[in-house]
Structures are given as structure tokens and as C-alpha cells.
Amino acid sequence: MDEREILTWDLFGKASRELAEMVAADGFRPDLILSIARGGLFAAGALGYALSVKNLHVMNVEFYTGVDERLELPVMLPPVPNVVDLTGAKVLVADDVADTGSTLKLVHDFCQDHVADVRCAVLYEKSHSMVKCEYVWRRTDQWINFPWSTLPPVVDAAVLDA
């Protein structure tokens, strides 16, 4: 098996705190945090607490279908945030990883024309990402085992869809 970056729950706690400290040290005070579901939900929640930001939004984007398997292009899934809720805001986009950067670019571009400022915070950024995030906890080009997605689901998705 290829070497992998392993993020445990304990290390996630340290990582998210250090990521929040980077944002705070930069003087950026977001009005809201826009989480990219699903992996970004964990980072966004931790950042929200650490940065005293209660206004959290979620954007559902589908791109990965498996390990190194992805759709041709990322797709926004409903409900898409209302741009009226974002207008004039300082937005921190949170995700677990900037891999290709396609998902972050889609969300960043969605926000760009409506917000006062949009910046990205990720736990991991890969060297080939088309988006270079303002706040990155760690850089790697390995596949990452996140604590929330390493184990298989406790339910079979095929059974749920039947």
C-alpha cells in the first residue's frame, strides 16, 4: 500500500486549532464560514468555535467518488446558498483538503462577485492544487486518511437507496 498521511481525531484537534490561529494572526475576521460538505464540515465547525464565528453555511459539492476517483468536474448540489446571505460579507471557505483545487475554485468563484473578501482555509493542500489557499495547516502529496472517512459506513448505501 502507498504511504498515506494519517490524521487522527487528536491530531485533527491540534490541526484545526493551529489553522484558526493562522487566520487570527493574519487579522482576518470572517463574518461567516462557508463549509464545503462533507469533509469541510469538521474543519468549519472547529474554526467557527476557535474564531468565535457562529454564522456557518454549508455548500454541498460532489467531486470524489472514491480513492483517487472523481467526476470530470465538481457539481454543486442543492440547496445552494443564497448569494443575498453572502453579499458584502467576509467569507472563510473551509475544507479538509485542496487536492486538485477544483472544488475550492468552484466555491471561491461562486462567492467572488458577491462578497467583500473570500479566503480559503484547509487542513491539507497538495502541490498540484489549482487554488493556493491563504491558510494551510499542512502540505502533502500523499493520499490522506481522515478520521471521519477512513472506516467504511455502518450502513450499506445500496440498501438505503433501495
The gist of it:
This protein is α/β, with parallel strands linked by helices and 162 residues long. 30% of the residues lie in helices and 34% in strands.
What does this entry look like structurally?
- The chain is an alpha/beta fold and 162 residues long.
- The chain has one domain (4-161): 3-Layer(aba) Sandwich (Rossmann fold).
- It contains 5 helices and 8 strands, in the order βαβαββαβαβββα.
- The chain has helices at residues 9-25, 39-50, 83-86, 102-112, 157-161; strands spanning 4-6, 32-37, 56-66, 69-77, 90-98, 117-125, 135-139, 143-145.
- The strands form 2 sheets. A 6-stranded mixed beta sheet has the order 4-3-2-5-6-7. The protein has a two-stranded parallel sheet with strand order 1-8.
- Helix 4 (102-112) links the parallel strand 5 and strand 6 (117-125).
Annotation keywords:
162 residues, alpha/beta, Rossmann fold, 6-stranded mixed β-sheet, 34% strand, Phosphoribosyltransferase domain-containing protein, PRTase_dom, PRTase-like
Helix/strand layout:
Elements: E1 4-6, H1 9-25, E2 32-37, H2 39-50, E3 56-66, E4 69-77, H3 83-86, E5 90-98, H4 102-112, E6 117-125, E7 135-139, E8 143-145, H5 157-161
Parallel strand pairs: 1-8, 2-3, 2-5, 5-6, 6-7
Antiparallel strand pairs: 3-4
